[in-house]
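Sample intake sheet
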Amino acid sequence: MKTTRNALFALFLLAAGTVTAASAQVSIGAGIHIGPSGRAAVDLGFFYDNLAPYGNWIQRPNYGWVWTPTAVSTSWRPYEDGHWVWTDQGWTWITDEPYGWATYHYGRWYQDPQIGWAWVPGNDWGPAWVSWQEGANYVGWAPLPPGVDISASYNSGYGGGYGYNGGGYGSYDYGIGPDAYVFVPERNFLSLSIGSYVVPQVQVSAFWGQTRNYTSYRREGDRYFNQGVPVDRIQRVVGRSVPRYQIADLQTTDYRQPRTRIAGNQVQIFRPQVQQTAQVAPPVSRPAARRAVVSAEQFQASHPNRATRSQQVNGDQQQANRYQRQQQQQQGAQPQVQPYQPRTYNQPPQAQYQTGRQRQVNPNTQQDQYQQQQQSRRYNDQRRYQQQQEQNNQQQRPPRAVNPQQDRNQQQQQPPPRANRQQQPPPQSQGNHNGQNHGSQNDKNQNRGKAQQKQRDRNQNQDQDQNRPPGR
């Protein structure tokens, strides 16, 4: 009997332990559960609560509840603080921001005219949701706006799959303008501190017309592949093989720590499945998110520069889109896409760029070339002017002797200039000087002529006396 009671008690403890373990698997954190597939699962409320410490939740008429960060600069853009890695799902963004695990792998970004960049929550996880531009030795990416369905888009470019690759060079694909793109030199694309190489927006317009869109996605089951710029092109530019990683789920229960980790050949990311439940309390009704809820007017008053910047960008993009549509209607055809042609480099790429800490702008841009030409031209003109002045001074001034006494002796020994000899009057006669005194010789000739004339006169008088008749 006692043995039976012990056996029943042991079975009871075993059953209690099993129930406890099952409960632990169902709920592993605040708002995190285990889904049917065995992966962590959350709902939209998890985003509402966890993003509240880093920004504000604002209700907008077109997209409902959207989120925007607060502690960022006016020129801040999504997908700027982090780096890219090549994985089994394509180009994957590894963020350095504490909220990036959600805002760069779920949902979409857009530029709101009142609050600036805003994030719309979404259900599908992806390695990154961006549009790609490449050309003129630069690579750029910008967030895909809400409503972009890659499964319904057309792709005629490299690699196949879904996406848009038929907009031509310098086009505003998906309605995204140059201001939304983050551009870096191609050889710095794999840098871990990619923010140090971002090209300032004032320089993008110089090469925007030479870039084309390379957005390319494909889907297999519930997995999305972000192909973008061909990886073999990046390998040719950097001169080495691009490491390939495998995406894996981050195995941890402390989700307050960094939610992306690189271990060996794996990129471990916290990527829970988002369950589409009908009843999810909005941020204004949630204790953890309520403190982050503000109106658009309140946010605009607290961040006036963000709204002004967004209005300028939206105005430029809308004007450019209208102009592009007008040009296409006038031409009556869509612009043709040129096939992808890999470039060859005659010199090592490292000789073309400086590090990001020394300079953040490519030195081969048109504006830099123009400034270098102007500086070189001014330097050459100044150099030629100085050389001409030195030549003129050398012609006007005689060489100066090192010894002043020697200089005076040379001046005494030198005969006077020929012009001075011609201007001096001839010296008076002081003797024959071996017949070299021309003035004395002239006087002798004149006296001799006078004597001869007197002799002729005497001869003539004698002849006249001889011929005169004798006197009476």
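Comment: The longest helix spans residues 366-396. The chain has a mean pLDDT of 74.
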